[in-house]
Fold these 2 entries.
Entry 1:
Amino acid sequence: MPSRPPLVVLALALLFATSCAPSEPPRPKVAFLGVDGATFTVIDPLLKAGKLPNLAKLIDRGARVVLESSPESDASPVIWNSIITGTGMDEHGILSFTKPGGRPGEHRIYQSADRKVPALWHMVGERGGTTGAIGLWNTWPAEEIEGYMISDRFTLSLFTRNFAAEQAPALTYPDELLDEVAHLIAAPDDISREEVAALGTFSDAEWTELMTADKRKSGVVGGNGLVALKFGFQAQKTMGAVSLELLRTQEQPDLFMTFLELPDRVGHHFWHAYRPGDVPKRRGTVEPEWVERWGNVIPGAYEDADRWIGEMLAELDPDTTVFVISDHGMQASGSPGGVIDNLATMAHSGVHRSDGILIAAGPAIQAGSTVDDAGVFDIVNTTLAAMGMAPSSQSRGRVLTELFAPGFLAEHPLQPPRDETPLPPREPLTIEDSEAHRSQLEAIGYIDETGENKRFDRAEGSEAGNDDGK
Ligand SMILES: [Zn+2]
């Protein structure tokens, strides 16, 4: 009589077979930390002085790369949408800050529905992964993705955001997330003198100006850099706090994305105090008192960003590959930044330059590696490859393989590019941009009273262009 193996042997064999079966290795995780307008021009001296300990640690164990901005536009919404889609402006459809729409003769701010092609979060979702995206440009209404999204209109910053939640649906996806994080919104007027003391000292008159400027008619405050400081600081605080909260309360998504904006905001309006030597003599002299009191506003903004990044790194799985990315650099406009007895003139001393940053570290990245022709179009496919995913044929950029650790590539070989599923047609929400929001845009000088994008003279010697950006 043939003997049958006892049940326990069968069970053990099954267990052995299961545990030895080839199982999917855990998906490599990536964090995409956007810092608007960050430049090595400011970062390098601060690294040398030991003032950016968290970026320093990333560079020590990773790569430091100059990231060439988009040749098409120096407007931040255009560039960031190229970064997250790998496409040019004609393909992604975000052509500036605002577009004709709303009431006749007016312009409205570009919305997520205006973006015509899939973004990184769609690509990651199609490849079976999850994304948590916080504060990226033109993400309102928050998009339904595999994961969560905090739209850029969540903060009360320069461009959008003084909506009450009921006036602006879809600030977050899913909607319920709003209840969990709404308490973290730092309103512009809640800024305290103590918390900006590390950036600069402000007289009573300046502080009053800072607290009230955005409530006045745009003609009075046009271009006042104190407004940019206030909104930028509070927006950075809001997005930093929401990032930490979601990293603590939610499972870390495969791709975590967030956005800090203060370096750009103050870069536009305090460059004269930071680098007075960049102002040509024939343009005037920078007020020495401003240099003394506000020379640290820009470095302080970077230190603040570094602190938020350090806190996020502490929450992220240590096996996360981290990318710190900016859309462009910054340089002097040539303006001495105004005169001290007329605060309304204090502004517009910094403009964009094409050299952004890419700092990369983690399991996918070879320490000490670099690449000298990296550009904003390469971020999509480099991010996907660092997640072990197929790059996208939609992107005009490439995988920056020079940065990758050979061991990582052995475990996660580069895959052929794949096509993206087109997005279903999306209708922009017809809600009008709020008055408060528009007055902020006007106050900073990005749009005029009709909502049209304003144009500014760029740096000395270059042609006129669409300045700025957030
Ligand atoms: Zn800018």
Entry 2:
Amino acid sequence: MTADRGSPPVREIGVALLGLGNVGAGVVKLLEDNAAAIGARLGGRLVVRAIAVRAPGKKKRLVEVDPALLTKDIAGAIARPDVDIVCELIGGDGEAKDAVMAAIAAGKHVVTANKLLLARHGTEVFAAAERHGVDVYYEAAVCGGVPIIRVLREGLASDRVEQFHGIVNGTSNYILTAMAAGGRAFADVLAEAQRLGYAEADPTLDVGGGDAAHKLAILCGLCFGATIDADAIHCDAISELDAVDFAYAAKFGYVIKPVVIGRDHPRGIEARVHPALVPAGWLLAGVTGAKNAVAVDSYALGPSMYYGAGAGMMPTAMAVVSDLIEISRNLRAQLTGVAPTRRHRALARRPLLPMAEIRSRYFLRFSVADKPGVLGQLTTILGAHDVSIEQVVQEAPGDGNRPAQVFVITHEAREGDVAAALGKIGALPATLAAPRLIRIVV
Ligand SMILES: NC(=O)c1ccc[n+]([C@@H]2O[C@H](COP(=O)([O-])OP(=O)(O)OC[C@H]3O[C@@H](n4cnc5c(N)ncnc54)[C@H](OP(=O)(O)O)[C@@H]3O)[C@@H](O)[C@H]2O)c1
């Protein structure tokens, strides 16, 4: 086919890929598989000029690439004059951070999927981008393929987000979904998730909440214009949950989900990561397996929810390539660096609201001696700390030998008061195990 006479030559946008793992390989595959559609939308071609990896000689790759593209030399790949955009898909905040800062300093636009880097060093990265007049796009960093960054940055640009609830870690959601369905133990489901490739060999960042906290920090930046200390966000691991928690949550009409919550208060940002009871009728309760979702409450739109694949080779690559397309369009329109960080709002450093000051409803579980008067002691202590009970169920074997289990659903209370009450109940002679607390989303 020949080009129309008089039409401009097809513009090539040069890309340096840093990393050819799951996401990097997906990017190569998507650029090939969707070349025609991407070309039509872009009016140009995205061309990978170099691919930096740790081990260029590696035998097994997820995609075949021209071996001449592979290099260990990150600096060389960034510096190529035919590279316009550097796509960082290495991960972590070591070499990846150096590479992103070097690319920005060299005047190259950046696409990254790296939540850890942006949660910890976003202020530095975006300030450098503004100084050098380049774009930094990061759609894949939160919820993989779900375009939540674009929604918050553009779709809701005229609105004011009041709060959001999210399921942003697919591994944790996969594990809790399986525990709820099969009454299975955490360790058993984790081992299965690792076998199936849903969980890393070292699952700490996923099940401990660290990965979700990084995404939460990015979301708080977009929603509230707040820079918060991502490493100080309160995280409760999902590993503490027992099958009995799921069974009783279901009896009370709830599903246990691994949630992140963000709210803007005058005194600080409420940001927390923990398993929580979600009413079974909520849309978020229906987000199962490894899927992600963010439910946003905003002033003008009201509730809205964004759902899809939060990880995986092709969904994540889709988000990365969409960022490449957007920067390429900016390049063609000579609009790069106009609003360099593409943030929803200007950022200000804000404190985190102390957990003692948050207000929530709670699901409490007590293992106590099966004796008369013990239930009264529990309810008296809760009442004395302003923790009012909505429902209580006691399972007492009645033989005087085995412990009784007491399950309590509270009305909304201040977490500091609940913690003080649980401290007193934990010290009672009748209490046989540390009281359990799981928050209920309200
Ligand atoms: N996987 C997902 O579903 C997903 C979803 C959302 C976001 N992300 C983010 O995307 C990024 C990449 O994740 P991934 O799953 O693709 O990781 P991955 O499979 O572990 O791949 C990492 C790649 O980086 C290369 N690399 C590591 N250290 C390097 C170094 N010092 N110099 C040059 N190359 C180096 C590796 O090279 P070799 O191949 O030679 O070892 C490999 O190709 C991370 O920030 C991750 O958080 C991933």
